[in-house]
Amino acid sequence: MRILITAGPTREYLDDVRYLSNASSGQMGYALARSAIAAGHEVALVSGPVTISPPAGCELYQVETTDEMFAQCAKLFPNCDGVIGTAAVCDYRIKTRKPGKIAKTGEAITLELIETIDVLAELGTQKGNRWVMGFALESQDARFNAVRKLYSKKCDAIVLNSVTAIGSSENFVEVIDQSQDIVATYSGEKTQVADSLIQWIQQHLAGRSTDCS
């Protein structure tokens, strides 16, 4: 298979210096890229800013903003068999980016934020016969929200993990498929979890013609 993988955070600039982002390290996405390549698949890795070296043999596309990530994924997805969306994209951006650097005045400031594009949901609407696996990082009503995202993003499966995964070398995940049931659980080093998830994809998603619309 040729697999598109998104990884790491995105940044949304408030001015030319400051930005909104999150603490995603990109470890899970990069581990999945390595596991997929080791299993004999081609990987196109679209990555936000991280400090990890990409695995040998993958196509690396470095982006910064959410719009840049979507634009790159939209170009690559038509020639892929599926996508694994592990990127922790920034959900909001400032409505009007300020030029230069916002100066301190000693007073409170108000920032008007608007939602960014939902990269995985947009790819889900374009998937056709391709498969889509998403990741859900939840702290409250975790399984309910994961299932909601499963359908809103038109995923074939979604991987639920908690906020403790951020920046950690370990992870505990639950795989939820279209039945809304937890069909697999994996824990351990992210490299091990990645191996298990690639095996699950090979067994349950590879070669399938799916339609979640």
Q: In this structure, how is the largest beta sheet organized?
A: 8 strands, mixed
Q: Which class do the helix and strand fractions yield?
A: alpha/beta
Unreliable stretches covering 5 or more consecutive residues: 209-213
Portion in helices: 25-40%
What does the average pLDDT come to? 93
Q: In sequence order, what are the helices and strands, one letter per element? A: EEEHEEHEEEHEHEEEH
Give a count of the beta strands, DSSP E runs of length 2 or more.
Answer: 12
Shape: globular
Which band does the percent of strand residues land in? Answer: 25-35%
**Total helical elements:** 5
Q: How big is the Rg?
A: 17 Å
Strand order of the largest sheet: 5-4-1-6-9-10-11-12
Termini separation: 23 Å
Keywords:
213 residues; alpha/beta; 8-stranded mixed β-sheet; two-stranded antiparallel ribbon; disordered C terminus
Model description:
This protein is an alpha/beta fold. 26% of the residues lie in helices and 27% in strands. A hairpin with a 4-residue loop joins strand 11 (170-177) and strand 12 (182-189). Helix 1 (27-38) packs across helix 5.
